[in-house]
Amino acid sequence: MQFHLNGFQPGDPEIADPAERIPAPGADGALPAEVDVLIVGCGPAGLTLAAQLSAFADIRTCIVEQKSGPLLRGQADGIACRTVEMFEAFGFSERVLKEACWINETTFWKPDEKNPQNIARSGRVQDVEDGLSEFPHVVLNQARVHDFYLDVMRRSPAKLKPYYNRRLVDLQIAAETAGGNADPCRVTARLEPADPAQGGRPETVKARYVVGCDGARSAVRKSIGRALHGDSANHAWGVMDVLAVTDFPDVRFKTLVQSAGEGSSIIIPREGGYLFRLYIELDKLAAGERVANRSITSDHLIAAAQRIFRPYTFDVKEVAWWSVYEIGQRLCDKFDDVPDAQAGGVDWNWNSRYWRSFGAPWGGAITTTSDMSRFCQCLAQGGEPLFSPATVREATTNRLLDFPGIPDGDRRSRGWGYGWRMNWKDHRSLFADLLPAEAYGHWGATGTLCWIDPERELSAVLLSTRSVEREVSPLTRLSNMICAAAR
Ligand SMILES: Cc1cc2nc3c(=O)[nH]c(=O)nc-3n(C[C@H](O)[C@H](O)[C@H](O)COP(=O)(O)OP(=O)(O)OC[C@H]3O[C@@H](n4cnc5c(N)ncnc54)[C@H](O)[C@@H]3O)c2cc1C
C-alpha cells in the first residue's frame, strides 16, 4: 500500500482517482417520522450497532450524525487484535488486514545510563502475546473502518445510510401508560441542522429506543439525566501524523520512549510505509482546565519531540494531521433510564441489572447466525476440516453412558456429550419433538439455541432474546417447524 507516498489521502487506496475514493454520501431527504431504534452518532460505537441492526430489515433503524459527511481522517487508528476478531464477524477483517500497518514488535527507550540527556534502547518485545488472538494488532485510518461499516450497512437487508448534518438537541420521554393501546414510540428526539449553511430544518423523530453513541459529551446522556463521575482533572497528550527525515532507528516500530527530563513519547508507524504517528505527553491539566486554552501548536509538539528523542533528530517535512486531546478518568454510573423498579430486583429477568452488569463467561462468545450455521454444518457433516470425525463422534454422543454410577434413567434420558447436550425426549427443554434423540446442540438460557441432526446433516441456529427457561419455548415450536420443512 503506497497511498501515503505523496501525503495523506483519505478514502479507498485502491481507487486511483482521489475524487472517487471518497465514500458514498448519506441518506437523502427528511428523517423518518417514527423508527424502532434511533442511533445518535456515527463514531465506532454507533456504526457498529447500525451495521448489526442493518441485518434486520424489519427493525426500523435510523442513524444520525452531526458531521456533514463520513469521516475522512480518524484518530482511533490503533486496532487491537480482539477488535479485528469483531471485524471478522462483520466480514471485513481481510480488507483491514490488507490495508493496515501490522504492529508486530514494540521497542522501549529510556535515559542512557552513561549520558542521561540522551535516550537508549532498553528492550524489544513481541507486541501481542502468543495465544491471545489469531489476528495481529494493526494501525489503519479509523475512517477506513467507518467506510467498511458503511459498506456493510449499504449492502444489508435494511440498506441503511446515515443522515448527516443532524445534531440531536434533546429527548422528550413520554410517561409509560398502561394498556394495549399505549404508543410504543415514547421517545421524541429533537434534531437540528448542525451546519445551517448546508440547508435543513429542525426535525423530530419518534422512537421506541434511542441509543446514545454520541461520544464523551453525549446529548443523549444529558437528556436522560445521567452524568459522568470521577477525577475532573485531565491528562493532555499531543498527537500528530508526520512525514519526517530522522536518524531514529526504530521509527517503523511501535516505540515507547521515556526521557530523563523532557517527558514521554510513543511512536506508532502508519500504514503505507512512510507516515508515523507521534504521541507526546503534555502536562496534567488543572481540574476543569481545557486544553484548548493552552494555545498549543504543532510546532510546540515538534519541538517537544526533538527534545525527548535527543540525540536523534526529526526533520518534519509534513504534518498530515495533529491534535491535542484530553484523557479523563470519568465514568457514567448507569447506561439507561430504566427505573430501578423495572431494572429487576429478585426477578429472574435477563434484562435485570444483575445480569447486565455480571461478567457472565458464556456471554463472551459473540457470533452471527451465518457463522454459527457454518460451524454447525461442518459438525453435521463429520467435522472436517476443523475436527476429526472421531473427535466429533466422541464429543456429540451421550458420554453419561460411560458413568455407571449415575442413575440409569438420567444416564439414558438426560444425555450429554462433551459440552453438547443431547435432544432430551419427554423433557420440556427438548430441542424439537421431530428430532431424533441422537441430535445434539446447545440450549442457552438467554434465548440462544442451536441443534444438529447428524442423521440428516441438518442444523439450525436460533439467536433470540427470548428466555427459554420459563415455559415450553416457542423456540422448540420453531425448531419443529424447521424439521418439518426440511423433510
Ligand atoms: C487523539 C485520539 C487518539 C485515539 N486513538 C485511539 C486508538 O488508536 N485506538 C482506539 O481504539 N481508540 C483511540 N482513541 C479513542 C477513540 O477515539 C474513542 O474511544 C472512540 O472514538 C469512541 O467511539 P464512540 O463511537 O463512542 O464516540 P465518538 O468517536 O466520539 O463518536 C461520537 C459521534 O457522535 C457525533 N455526535 C456527538 N454529539 C452529537 C449530537 N448531539 N448529535 C449528533 N451527532 C453527535 C460526533 O460527531 C461523533 O461522530 C483515540 C482518541 C483520541 C481523541
Write up what this structure looks like.
The protein is α+β, with helices and mostly antiparallel strands and 487 residues long. Helix content is 21%, strand content 28%. It contains twelve helices and 19 strands. Helix 2 runs parallel beside helix 5 and helix 3 crosses helix 4. The longest helix has 14 residues. The chain is globular, with a radius of gyration of 27 Å. The model has no long low-confidence stretch (mean pLDDT 88). The structure holds flavin-adenine dinucleotide. The site of flavin-adenine dinucleotide has 24 residues, from helix 2, strand 8 and strand 15.
Draw up the topology in text:
Elements: H1 18-21, E1 34-40, H2 44-53, E2 61-64, E3 78-79, H3 81-90, H4 93-99, E4 101-103, E5 105-111, E6 119-126, E7 137-139, H5 142-155, E8 166-173, E9 187-193, E10 203-212, H6 219-223, E11 228-246, E12 254-258, E13 264-269, E14 276-284, H7 298-308, E15 314-332, H8 353-356, H9 369-380, H10 389-396, H11 408-413, E16 421-422, E17 440-444, E18 448-453, E19 458-463, H12 474-485
Parallel strand pairs: 1-2, 1-10, 5-12
Antiparallel strand pairs: 3-7, 4-7, 5-6, 8-9, 9-10, 11-14, 11-15, 12-13, 13-14, 16-17, 17-18, 18-19
Helix pairs in contact: 2-5, 3-4
Bound molecules: flavin-adenine dinucleotide.
